[in-house]
Design a protein that fits this description.
The protein has 445 residues and is mostly beta strands. It folds into three domains: 96 residues, Immunoglobulin-like (Sandwich); 89 residues, no CATH class; 213 residues, Immunoglobulin-like, CATH 2.60.40.3620. Helix content is 5%, strand content 45%. It contains one helix and 37 strands. Strand 23 and strand 24 form a beta hairpin. It is elongated. The termini are far apart.
């Protein structure tokens, strides 16, 4: 093929590519018409939680498509509603004014956007002052009764003071409707955040330290409320996780005295606490621990922390060891069985010199006739002790190897052995020779 023909072919290819490229371009429709919005400022006495009504007259010389109302708190869009507007005329609707925890009174923005079928738009915006409704009262709702909550004189705070039937008072709170655009607002418990939220009727777990006459308070702006059980460890208030559990991350000192207020007759975990009369001291090494008070079991669960996270076993043998498996649990293996569920794992107490201990009482925290648990490097699946890294010469338990009646690393009771009901057995793992050379001892105390 000569040079002239090559040039002709290149020209044809170039033109074809250009035509294909042009045919693939998306051509935007030509915007036409003149959409208009006619609306007077109708937005006075607006309160958080309102369903705010509006009425808008729209017009255009081409078919209309939609009218959208958008509500903003500052720059944040918080609510919107859209109406189909096929014809010219007057349209009405409502838009929600969200009720948010802690939000101050202020000026919001309400924008209306009208769009016709050619996508041509018109818009109008209004400043809308919004404030917390001046509720004359709130209502505390329990399963069997309702109680008025009256203003206390402090900003946005209400209280009900009654001879309530019990020191525990599960309840939610609702508001009256103050005007024609207002709604009944409800405030209840959210287990996920252990706090009061708007829109929930789940019962808030109120509890007074004593029965009889007491007060329930609620701040309609901040959602602060009470009373709740108050648990105090070493002078520091524990935070509520849910209605049954309170928690604190705290530095504890080996041999230091422990003070605990708010829960009586709690179960003393012998791996973490030593009771001598009324004096209780901390047994493990000094460090940061997570202490969770369970009101149902009357138990202080103690877990080793590294910073804000659960500790794990380190290559040098420091950290902690976790127990996961069957037939074990504190303060009762029956009512609080660990099982093969990592969040239930028991934390062995680090007692010093890279030694970790777990005390189990036969018939209480461990089954007398069967065990099947193992030791892990973390409170989850992952690193674990197997027969290659954990040995024992105990005549009470054995470490499984996969061929002796237990999976590799799982513990079992030695042949013919039953634990003596009521007796305590101390399980100790010594990692002073390295994490791959652990020694397990089991001693009846």
């Amino acid at each position: 093929m000569n040079t002239k023909k090559i040039k002709q072919w290149l020209f044809i290819i170039a033109v074809s590519s250009l035509l294909i490229s042009c045919s693939n371009e998306v051509v935007a429709p030509q915007q036409e018409g003149n959409p208009t919005i006619q609306i007077e400022n109708q937005f006075a006495d607006v309160h958080f939680g309102d369903l705010l009504p509006f009425e808008v007259t729209v017009n255009d010389d081409v078919p209309l498509s939609t009218l959208t109302a958008i509500f903003y708190y500052g720059e944040e869009e918080v609510s919107r509603t859209t109406i189909r507007t096929k014809e010219n005329g007057t349209y009405s609707g409502t838009i929600e004014v969200p009720y948010r925890k802690g939000i101050p009174d202020g000026t919001a923005t309400l924008e209306f956007v009208l769009v016709n079928t050619t996508l041509k738009k018109a818009s109008r915006s209004f400043d809308v002052p919004v404030e917390l409704a001046p509720y004359p009262y709130l209502i505390l709702v329990t399963l069997n009764a309702s109680y008025p909550m009256l203003p206390t004189g402090r900003p946005d705070e209400y209280t009900a003071t009654e001879a309530f039937p019990s020191s525990e008072l599960p309840a939610y709170i609702k508001t009256p409707v103050v005007d024609e655009k207002g709604r009944e607002m409800v405030f209840g418990w959210d287990e996920g955040v252990a706090a009061v939220v708007e829109g929930s009727r789940s019962e808030i777990p109120y509890a007074s330290p004593a029965g009889g006459t007491y007060s329930v308070t609620f701040n309609a702006r901040t959602f602060e409320t009470g009373p709740f059980f108050e648990l105090v460890l070493n002078g520091q208030k524990m935070s509520m996780v849910d209605k049954d559990n309170y928690r604190i991350d705290i530095d504890l000192t080996q041999g230091g005295e422990i003070t605990f207020e708010g829960m009586t007759d709690w179960w003393i975990d012998p791996d973490y606490f030593v009771a001598e009369g009324d004096k209780i001291t901390f047994l493990p090494i000094s460090g940061k621990y997570r202490v969770t008070a369970n009101l149902v079991l009357n138990w202080l669960r103690v877990e080793v922390l590294s910073g804000a996270n659960y500790a794990s076993l380190q290559p040098d043998g420091t950290g902690t060891i976790w127990v996961i498996g069957d037939q074990v649990g504190k303060p009762s293996y029956i009512s609080n069985h660990v099982g093969w569920t990592p969040p239930n794992a028991l934390c062995m107490a680090p007692v010093g010199n890279k030694k970790y201990q777990l005390t189990l009482v036969a018939g209480e925290t461990v089954n007398t006739s069967e065990i099947n648990f193992k030791f892990f490097h973390q409170k989850d699946w992952g690193g674990e002790f197997r027969s290659q890294s954990l040995a024992t010469d105990s005549d009470i338990v054995f470490v499984g190897n996969g061929n002796n009646g237990r999976d590799n690393g799982n513990l079992g009771l030695a042949t013919g052995i039953m634990l003596e009901t009521g007796s305590a057995y101390l399980f100790t793992i010594d990692l002073s020779a390295g994490v791959d050379n652990g020694i397990l001892t089991v001693v009846k105390k």
